[in-house]
Amino acid sequence: MASAPHARRLTAGVLSASSSSSSLLQSSFTRRRCFATTLPEPAVKPQSQPQPQPSSRPATSFSNKLNAGPKFGDFVSGKEEALTPDDALELRTAMVGPEGRKKQITRLPAWLKTPIPNNDNYKKIKKDLRGLNLHTVCEEARCPNISDCWGGSDKAAATATIMLMGDTCTRGCRFCSVKTAKAPPPLDPHEPEHTAEALKRWGLGYVVLTSVDRDDLADGGARHFAETIMKIKQKSPSTLVEALTGDYAGDTDMVRLVAQSGLDVYAHNVETVESLTPSVRDRRATFRQSLDVLRTAKLAQPGLITKTSIMLGLGEKEDELVDALRELRNVDVDVVTFGQYMRPTKRHMKVEEYVTPAVFDMWRRRALEMGFLYCASGPLVRSSYKAGEAFIENVLRKRALHRPDVAVAAAEAGLARKEL
């Protein structure tokens, strides 16, 4: 039997253990109860939504600029005040770039802005082009006039510029956005037939055929070009055909082949004045070689209308333009057009000057005074811009002075006979 002191110690130990166990149970119960109280209660729909508290974060500088700028309604309201003539011709500048590296640029003038194309004629032409695997310089060169040319008031008034022999050129002119390669894909043998079929569907009064340069081909693609013209004339005799060709690397036999294929207008662009040609065009293209092309075409088919185009805004000088016009008249070029050079991408040469409409009008008058049959001159004029109107309203009218009976009848019927 244990002694009293020992018994007291044993009893105290049991009581202590019991107390410890009770404490552990109490602690466990407390944890379970606390855990239970933290479970989410069923959601109860509040009687009223609390008002959002205003953010304490200050507005950023970008937000301040955005709030101070024009609202969406300013762009769609159509209530802009008309600009005065002086304001419309004013060239505006802007500072662009990050802080510390800002540079001044000239904004695109108002007279160079054009509408987004969206009409039935435009949609039909675009759909047919994709279906027949045809290309146009209107799209490839990003022409600003595509809305006007493809969307004429009726099909006979619409014009299109078909680009033959694919969409890849063997040359690399610094102003042109058409793709380039040393060896483009082979020619599509069905392209002449498809092109003629498309033009028959559209019923266009005037069409311009152009092409990429194909220096990889022995004939430069001249036979392919001539075959396309002949098929168009077979399917659509009333369609006026203008051929805007390359220089065929100076092969005048190929120029004659195209000139005698049945076309109505032979066009070849000198693009710029002689002094700027090396820096603007591909090194294989020269001003003198272009003059030879235009001279050869005129001699190969007497009565054939020859045409060229010059871009302004590349840094040309007035006396250089006058000299270029004299050279063109010396080879009996009939039609010249002036248009504003517009930089297609940052990889291309920059615009040196935005020429005002008044200056373009001055060059139109000077060209006519020098003896050109017709001159289209304006910021948005391109080599094939509104070609049908330019040809019918100006060339045939002037020729009607000599043979009014035939010319007037041809104009009324929408025909242009080669004997005019």
From TrEMBL:
Annotated binding of [4Fe-4S] cluster 1, by residue: 138, 143, 149, 384
Enzyme category, top tier: transferase
SMART domains associated with the record: Elp3
Bias kind Low complexity: ranges: 15-28
Compartment list: Mitochondrion
Coiled-coil intervals: none
Matches recorded under InterPro entries: Aldolase_TIM, Elp3/MiaA/NifB-like_rSAM, LIAS_N, Lipoyl_synth, rSAM, rSAM_sf
Main location: mitochondrion
UniProt key word Mitochondrion: yes
SUPFAM superfamilies per the UniProt record, alphabetical: Radical SAM enzymes
Pathway given in the UniProt record: Protein modification; protein lipoylation via endogenous pathway; protein N(6)-(lipoyl)lysine from octanoyl-[acyl-carrier-protein]: step 2/2
Family per similarity comment: Belongs to the radical SAM superfamily. Lipoyl synthase family.
NCBIfam families noted in UniProt: lipA, PRK05481.1, PRK12928.1
Protein name: Lipoyl synthase, mitochondrial
